[in-house]
Design brief:
Blueprint (H helix, E strand, L loop, with lengths): L8 E6 L5 H22 L8 E9 L2 E8 L7 H6 L2 H12 L2 E8 L2 E8 L18 E2 L2
Parallel strand pairs: 1-2
Antiparallel strand pairs: 1-6, 2-3, 3-5, 4-5
Bound molecules: adenosine-5'-diphosphate and magnesium ion.
Adenosine-5'-diphosphate binds next to helix 1, helix 2 and helix 3.
Length: 137
Amino acid sequence: MIDDRQRIRIETRGGGRASSREAESLGLIVTELVINSLKHAFSDDTIGGLIAVVYEVCGTDWKLSVSDNGIGTSNATDRAKGGLGTGIVKALAKQLDAQVATLTGPQGTTVSVTHATFGTSAGAQPLSAVPVMADVA
Ligand SMILES: Nc1ncnc2c1ncn2[C@@H]1O[C@H](COP(=O)(O)OP(=O)(O)O)[C@@H](O)[C@H]1O
Ligand SMILES: [Mg+2]
């Protein structure tokens, strides 16, 4: 968990349209995943903490991903069981007819929510593979 003195950068990239119903669910998913990164990914002495939110649209397909460069989750059982947040993200993704994929390790965590086919780029990518665009905070 970060404290008030720590500076974590949040970057956003991508764009494209979504219906208001989709946008509502996507907003809730982003909120949960960004809070997860703030809550779980960084330690008290983290320097250079980064969270990237990426939304890409291709025709009727889209992918939303939230990545951080934090400590990852080593406890696979905890992660698989998940808490309330994991359940909410899965339920919202189901409503959107999308798949949730998580990639986690010592370099950080990426959670992707993908609707339909994105070819070989589907699924979670590490933060190092995510191009960066705007500095939000
Ligand atoms: N970005 C992240 N970095 C490291 N660990 C994470 C991250 N997101 C989730 N986790 C781990 O997965 C667990 C389940 O997350 P979640 O279902 O959102 O529950 P909660 O946030 O209420 O603990 C967390 O308790 C934490 O151990
Ligand atoms: Mg959570």
